[in-house]
Sequence to fold (219 residues):
Amino acid sequence: MTTYAVQGLVFVDSDGNGARDPWETTGVPGVTIRIWQGGNLVATTVTDGSGAYAVPGLPAGPTIVEELQPPGYVSTTPDNVALDLTGDVAVDFGEQLLVATPTPTATPIPVTMELRATSRYLLWYGPITQVLTGRYGGPAPLGGRTVMVTYRVPWGGFGVVSATTAADGRFSVAASPANPNFGTTEIGTWRAQAVDVTTGVQSNEVVWDVKWFKIHLKQ
Fold:
């Protein structure tokens, strides 16, 4: 009885076009190939180190050549090829490497803060009213978030005050009975920084100076 061979290559289809181009010579080793005839599994083989396989000694007739999907690849050609075996035949299978989807990483969204010191003077000097304003720019919801603001006064002391963001993420800190050191006439360099309590993301540190104000009268 005359017999025939099915052979071929499980190749890396680098451009994913489903065809084995002349430059695509890299094979996938260790891929299982099965041959079916008359509804029966008649042969099983595994691709060699170069991705090639060969199954000789097959009788003529309707034949299905099946590739078992190798892990880490996605097929660019059908995994089952049906043919009428009447001679030696080559059946290639194309595979393309799966590209892993990067796991999204949380990118901290900074809490932005602006500082503004407004002053009201009586003659040569007077009380200074300071207002600290900012805006939370992190994940939704913007409103109802707790922001802790730490400020340092020129003589080295510091205070911590809690603020709650409005619906648009804005918040402010001003003088109050709970903040006796803030909004005073303390002269020198002040510093402040905000942190979102939930995410722990800090704003930039803001530094500003409070100075005496003098009026020079012309005679």
